[in-house]
Amino acid sequence: xxxxxxxxxxxxxxxFEMIADDIVDGELHEGEQIPSTTEISKFYQVNRATVQKxxxxxxxxxxxxxxxxxGVFVAEGAKYRLLAERKEEFYIQYVKPMLEEGRRIQMTxxxxxxxIEEDYDD
Length: 122
Fold this sequence. Notes:
The radius of gyration is 19 Å and the shape is elongated. The chain has 2 domains: 11-77, Arc Repressor Mutant, subunit A (Orthogonal Bundle); 79-120. The chain is mainly alpha-helical. 61% of the residues lie in helices and 7% in strands. The longest helix has 27 residues, at 78-104. The chain contains 5 helices and 2 strands; from the N terminus they run H-H-H-E-E-H-H. A hairpin with a 3-residue loop joins strand 1 (64-67) and strand 2. The two termini are 26 Å apart. Helix 2 (37-44) packs across helix 3.
């Protein structure tokens, strides 16, 4: 998890995103226990209710599940689902606007592909 929160979004949402990032990055695996509400709240010095809200978002989205009295665990298929959703977001947020601008300035697909291929491995 990253070390600081920013002012752009509610903290519970950032906690949700940090844990989701850990799942995507392979730092948390399917079936693995997510740090407890107490551990996260102490580490980041945030209210337990705020952490609980972030963990509940993970559970409600199906990326995690609760075991009563034990904790919250990464759900089966969570990484695959998160990757699929983020790829779709990547297309909508970056690729689609890039292609629209390319068309607007009359770039060919070959020119766009060449630019991407030149920078992809850098």
